[in-house]
Amino acid sequence: MRPEVFMDLPIRDKVKVLYEKGTFVVAIRYYGYKINLYLMQNYYVEVFYNHKQDCIEKIELFNPRHTRLKFYADQIKISLPAGI
Fold first, then answer.
1. Rounded to a whole number, what is the distance in angstroms from the first to the last CA of the chain?
2. pTM for this one?
3. Which residues contact 39 (CB under 8 A, 6 or more apart)?
4. pLDDT digits (tens, 9 = 90+) for 47-82
5. How far, CA to CA in Å, does 34 sit from each of 28, 43, 53, 71, 81?
6. Nearest CA among 38, 44, 4 for reference residue 18
7. Is 39 left (phi over 0), alpha (psi -120 to 50) or beta?
8. Which residues pair with 44 in a beta bridge?
């Protein structure tokens, strides 16, 4: 599934696709969220879970330019497309 198709899905469908086709990579803590990183084919997806609300607040494509990259890089090696 292409990233743009995935992102057009409702959040419930995103969760289902991640569960069925994604590969869990790692979880980090970030400003009150537990963020689970998943690999989908050739792109990464972040799932933002709010402990206080006990819910997934958002699911978005991982932005390799975001400062969160250093939190992931401390634990795993992330393969990014050339030119990023």
1. 21
2. 0.83
3. 22, 23, 25, 45
4. 999 999 999 999 999 988 887 877 777 676 666 555
5. 6, 20, 12, 12, 25
6. 38
7. beta
8. 39
